[in-house]
Amino acid sequence: MIITRDFQLSFDEAAFLTLHGPGLDGPGLRPKLVAALDEIESLVEPAACFDSFPIEKVLHDRFQLAGGVKIGGGPVMAVVAGAEELFVALCTAGPALDERIREYRERGRYLQMLLLDELGSWAVDQLRQQLYERVQAELAERGWRTSSPLSPGESDWPMREQRIIFKLLDTAEIGVALGPSYMMSPLKSLSVVFGGGAQPMGSEGLTNCDFCSIQDRCRVSATRNNGRHTHAAAVVLAPAGNQIRDFPQEKRV
Amino acid sequence: MESELVGALADLKEDEALAMVQARLDAGDDPLGIFDDARRAMEIVGERFSASEYFIPELVYAGEILKEVAGLVKPRMAAGTEQARLGKVVFGTVAGDIHDIGKDIVVFMLDVNGFEVIDLGVDVPIERFVEAIQESQSPVVGLSGFLTLAFQSMKDTIAAIEAAGLRNDVKIMIGGGPIDEQVRSFTGADAFGTDAMSAVDLAKGWITA
To answer: What is the pTM of this model?
Structure first.
């Protein structure tokens, strides 16, 4: 399993304003947004763990991975069909953000709570996307393709499959736990799986939005540019020293 | 013509609005009149939200400014002259779900729009909803949930309310995440809300009906 904390988060202000309204750029709200941006820079502690598992068998509705663990359900089989390995990853923005959001809630400061929560969701989605793209780039170097990514709870993939991901990864290494309702703690955490292999797979080039049942009425989906976060005019949030490094320099456990 | 305070509040000019409130209080204006202006401003904010001129951040900001106004005005009000609340609403995120941000925003908006909200929190056991309705005699219940497993929880909670003989005494709204008419029908709720203002509108409609 590889652990990485090397992420460079960027804030796409145009997309965020599209999602949450141009009023955030107004004289009353803009200072609040700027304050939230400043705050989240110090709160987000990005971390991710991931690993790959050879697919040994294709069963009726699941894959059996090396080691015997079975994973499937929802659109997983269709999306990953043809893959040689299943990549399983978990990203988190860390516990400090959750704690600050809780504090604002208790103090009745709902606007700050809302802004930090939205920015936190934005951040952890970036972590997932960046990790997926990194693995995709490395696999491409060896001539491999990647399937579209999927996360439990999206589309028809039941949340309870989160437990399989937590069985495959030692998530305690990055401080993420799974609760009784299959929600992760810290809350701003995301898991993702995707296939890798030399042959074309069931679904390639799509995003999680494409598998979502409420895509047509989702503002988040509407702000994405062909499934990729735009990084133009970005405000870099990464703390000093948090630079992207190549895979070989990441910690393997 | 609406007062300048209504305009300043509706336009989210926080400093200007609070200065106006202070000036009116210092001039001996009736605090209830200031509250009336604040309520009218919140109506305008709601109208602008419905027209997609304002979004959730503006709603919440308006609510926070209103809270500050209340903080200035209430100490000047004679005991017993506080404006009556529109009614009670029991609200919570259903059992098995711990999502709270959306629920908190709705509770906040209900509160600033004049409702007395009994916020039960998150992962609320079915029986706690029943108890809260019995204790508060609230005519409106709001069930929040973001996970798809919340749909069954909502259905079970509504079934328990019915089993307790309370179903005809309450109107129940649901909301959160992927909830739509299909989910409403599945759960047995009376309506679903797509955002904080729709929850306020539903509650107002039911209580004033």
So the answer is: 0.83
